[in-house]
Amino acid sequence: MKTQGIFLPLAFAFMAMPAVAQTQAASTTMANDLPPQDKEFVQAASMSGSTEIDAAKLATKRSEDKDVKSFAHHMIVDHTKLTVELKMAAPHGVSVPKDNSDTTVLNSLKGLHGKEFDSAYIKSVGVEGHQKAVEAFKKEAEGGSNAALKKAAAKALPTIQDHLKMAQQLAAKKGVQ
């Protein structure tokens, strides 16, 4: 009799499990239905961050300039944090791509070394990359539909804007146009 009292609740718990799984699946599916602007933002932000990190890693190996290496190290640290924050802000069931760097940008840097690398890195990743990122984060912060993504974009925007200023200052210092 006692064993029946233990097993009956367990049997009911197991019967209820498929309903829980269905609810989780339904919420995951619903989360994947982000509005187009939010989907574009997740893609653009993850690509920007991934490209920044990968290009900065190249800069630590290919550059001989302490200012460029310092900038690159700063980008690795900050963009790694921003990537984590983006993943935490993404709704349940929405995956944030991990390694989706812009291969065109990275390939254009891979064959370069020294000052030639520095100029290309500062221009294409530092300045142009951050200009695009500022636009994407600003657009999401001002007009995104998903509250968590909108908040994350607004929170990250000042950091991205600072990166752009740093890149512009580095470009001016190194004579990169």
UniProtKB/TrEMBL annotation:
PANTHER family: BLR2558 PROTEIN. The keyword Signal applies. The keyword Signal applies. This is Membrane protein. Residues 1-21 form the signal peptide. Keywords: Signal. Residues 37-170 form the DUF4142 domain. InterPro entries: DUF4142, Ferritin-like.
